[in-house]
Amino acid sequence: MKKTMLVVLVGLLSFMLAACGGDKEKANSSESSSNYPEKPITVVAPSGAGGGWDLTARALAKVLSDTKLVEETLTVENKPGGGGAVYMAEFATQEKNNPYKLMISSPPILINHEKKEGNSPYGYGDTTPLAQLTKDYGAIVVKSDSPFNDLQSALDAIKADPTKVTVAGGSSPGSMDHLVAVLPAFKSDIDPKSVKYVSYDGGGEAIAALLGGNADLIATDASAIGEYVKSGKVKVLAVSSPERLEGDLADVPTFKEAGIDADFTIWRGVFGPKELKEEELAFWDKTLQKLSESEEWNNEVKSNGWESEFKNSTDFKKFLDEQNVVIQDLLTALGMQK
């Protein structure tokens, strides 16, 4: 009887030890999964250097590092092509389960998916939206020695002979810069399809084209043009904000002040891969919220001429759903809807 009891006790003890070991393994597994991030993170700007995506990516990486909100190394990569569409395809397929690759984007992630020409099969639904960080506006810009001194004179020239006015932007036809460029024409009863638009990979290249005499005017991000205004190299004819901006562009009229009943907001946000795990998303929700509240981030926002506008992952996804409808309506009006 005693022997039988001993066997039972030994068996029970072994079972309990095994169960404890299993629980320990589960705890270790859970602890391991919550240790994200554990290696360097790359923030991709899907454009060339000098434009809004590039500046946002570099500001984000800098502040996350400087504030120690992310202990791991952060690097920025430029992946230009197709107004963001080329890297979008890579991000949605090759990086879909890589939590160490993030991407900066803005309205083109919607536009490229919804437009008819050069349509991208991938959109924000192939990502995990993490947060909206800022908002910016479009600017219609000419060289300092341009004969155009206001938006109406440029529109009059396009209306007289659109083949003689080259308009450029840092995104592909039908994308954000193109929409900003043709919106005043559309609102002035000029066929937007008649506007001679040339695309470049990023705002920096579009500005270079303008300064090099390869474009008569460009549509670009208002925040990216301040240094060129200060140097006297360019004139800004109008901005797409609902009210006048501050700083270097304080004297520039809005579209509405220039007689164009329209405005256009350029939001910017950060996206993770589609298959981001729950604990990884929770990390970015917490970290990016803290980033948006930090003095360092708000100094970066101010120095770049942006406006802070934070939305967490849930609110950002809802906002994108709503914005997608707006983009579809605008493209339809321009005859560019897929």
UniProtKB/TrEMBL annotation:
Family assignment from sequence similarity: Belongs to the UPF0065 (bug) family.
InterPro entries: BUG, Bug_dom1
Keywords attached to this entry: Signal
Name of the protein in question: Tripartite tricarboxylate transporter substrate-binding protein
Stretches that traverse the bilayer: none
Gene3D superfamilies: Bordetella uptake gene, domain 1 (3.40.190.150), Periplasmic binding protein-like II (3.40.190.10)
Span of the signal peptide: 1-21
Family matches, as PANTHER family: TRICARBOXYLATE-BINDING PROTEIN (PTHR42928), UPF0065 PROTEIN YFLP (PTHR42928:SF3)
CDD domains: PBP2_Bug_TTT (cd07012)
PROSITE patterns reported for this sequence: PROKAR_LIPOPROTEIN
Species of the source: Metabacillus endolithicus
Pfam families reported in the protein's UniProt record: TctC (PF03401)
The keyword Signal appears for this protein: yes
